[in-house]
Description:
By secondary structure, the chain is of the alpha+beta class. The protein has three domains: about 1-30 and about 50-115, no CATH class; about 120-200, no CATH class; about 215-275, no CATH class. The protein has helices at about 1-10, 80-95, 115-120, 120-135, 140-160, 170-180, 185-200, 215-225, 270-275; strands spanning about 20-30, 35, 45, 50-65, 70-75, 100-105, 245-250, 265-270. A four-stranded mixed β-sheet has the order 5-4-1-6, sandwiched between helices. A two-stranded antiparallel ribbon has the order 2-3. Strands 7-8 form a two-stranded antiparallel sheet. The chain is elongated. It starts with a helix and ends in a 6-residue tail after the last helix.
Amino acid sequence: MEGVLEVYHRPHDPLRPVVCLDERPKTLRDTPRGSRPARPGRPARQDYEYERYGSCNVFLCVEPLVGKRQVSVTQRRALLDFADQLRLLSDGLYPEAEKIALVLDNLNTHTPAALYERFNVISLYTIVSQLLERYVVQDRGAEIARWFLDFETHRRAQAQLSEDEADPEMVVYHEKTSHSTDALDSIQWRHDFLMRKLFEAVPDMELKDDQRDFAREQRLAIFRRDGGLCQLRLRCDGARCEWDNWAADHIKPHSLGGKTTVANGQVACMACNSAKGNSVDR
């Protein structure tokens, strides 16, 4: 409590505003028999009978030192709604602020977990960690960030659609991330999915050591892009390959300076891959 009181005594600083955020549920009602307006000598009257029309949640943001208020209404009170309010504060109400001092109560949704759930912060961290270790990412930070923001925008838009209308891939992604998100298979699946999406969007990402073999995440992106169909067609007419029986082949041979990137990779059936000779990459 002493810490909160100290925050309230800070002088106003537009770059470090002090903002209070709270929320409460609200029952939606209507009076089927109507009401009578106020008139001189008689207050407004409303019939005691009412009908319920569900409920909503009301967020209130207040900056006490300047008297600024913002009210937002959501359908429910959940982690994702709280995360959206934080984004509204940082991107909408205080885009120029360096830091926002946020005063909250101890409601169970008021935790950093809301940000992890909404914005895939942990997933982004693991992706960047792997890229820094294995790939040449110098001067590509803005490109990777733009991909991630575009993916999150697409994901949120897809989440508003029914399963029949949504992209089947995003339906599966939602299922994997909505249940048992701390299970090892769920975490691995999510990581593989996001890495594949990244390499589909940025296919010219190079491995640091210029190695010949394609990395697993690159193979995932290549196989998905080519639909599992052989692109070489030296011994077949575009045969469909099984995941455990194909080769990731360099379009421009590695021996001739071809890079080990998704853009320079293609699916090859084993027969065509053997026929190509020194461009084989298993």
